[in-house]
Specification:
The protein is an alpha+beta fold and about 270 residues long. The chain is built from 6 helices and 12 strands.
């Protein structure tokens, strides 16, 4: 008599869905038996301290900071863990009031780099320094007292932020709001599904990218932050910024959009 048990053993079937599959190739780092380490900002900075920039010797006040020069045209790189680790490269210029301001030139997210050895940190530092050299060769940015393209810039930033490789999966685009013509616009994103609860018994109502232009300084500013409420009601209070960067009207829209998009992608 052919029982179900005998048939199952003979056929070698896996009725529970655990069919044997070819073993996937292992991560080469794991094959070498090395522990996974996060990218270490102190090692990145330490290696970059060996590189002069047009005769300027670098200096570092913090393990996550390195700078070449103190006058307009100087270069600064900061490694920040906000959202996830990223390098922010800035260039020094003056605004219309004669004040010095660090203008954001490039943001490099580390989010796609899951692990790194000390050797990798050294190589990574070299790659970043090449980008810094390229930025150093560019002209110093300039402020503008009659910039009237903030709305166009905001639309381009909005479009760039919605790219699949930029937009964090938890967000969906909501709207763009004009607060003041050519002076202030808000790009708003809502959270998908029910993922609105934040630490501390709070609700995330939305994420906002604030775009503004100051006629007095002649500079563009962008910062991004959560807007939260308590679970028991809706009060809509802003949270600390994920980034807060200044840009010059003389920068290309593409460069500004890429910087803001890179910052947003690390949320």
């Amino acid at each position: 008599m052919k029982t179900f048990k005998r048939w199952l053993v003979k056929e070698g079937r896996d009725i529970f869905g655990f069919e044997k599959r070819p073993k996937a190739e292992s991560d080469p780092i794991q094959d070498e038996g090395l522990p996974l380490e996060p990218i270490r900002s102190d090692i990145v900075v330490e290696n970059m301290l060996k590189n002069n920039l047009n005769g300027q010797e670098p200096f570092s006040n913090f393990p996550c900071h390195i700078q070449w020069g103190n006058e307009p045209g100087a270069i600064q790189m900061v490694i920040t863990p906000l959202g996830s680790f990223k390098s922010i490269i800035r260039k020094l210029q003056t605004n219309l009031l004669g004040e010095v301001v660090w203008v954001c030139k490039q943001i490099i997210p580390y989010k796609d780099m899951a692990a790194a050895s000390v050797v990798f940190d050294e190589n990574f530092a070299e790659d970043i320094f090449k980008k810094i050299e390229s930025i150093n060769e560019s002209q110093i940015e300039a402020p503008s007292k009659d910039y009237d393209k903030l709305e166009n810039l905001t639309i381009k930033v909005c479009q760039f932020a919605q790219r699949k490789d930029i937009l964090p999966e938890i967000f969906v685009f909501r709207d763009v709001r004009r607060i003041k013509q050519n002076e202030n616009y808000l790009i708003n994103f809502e959270l998908r599904g029910q993922g609105v609860e934040a630490p501390g018994s709070a609700r995330v109502e939305q994420f906002t990218i604030d775009m503004s232009y100051d006629k007095k300084t002649g500079m563009i500013r962008s910062f991004g932050h959560d807007v939260q409420s308590p679970l028991s009601g809706h009060q809509w209070y802003p949270q600390p910024s994920e980034w807060d960067e200044y840009f010059s009207p003389s920068q290309s829209d593409k460069e500004i959009a890429e910087c803001i998009g890179a910052a947003f992608s690390t949320y």
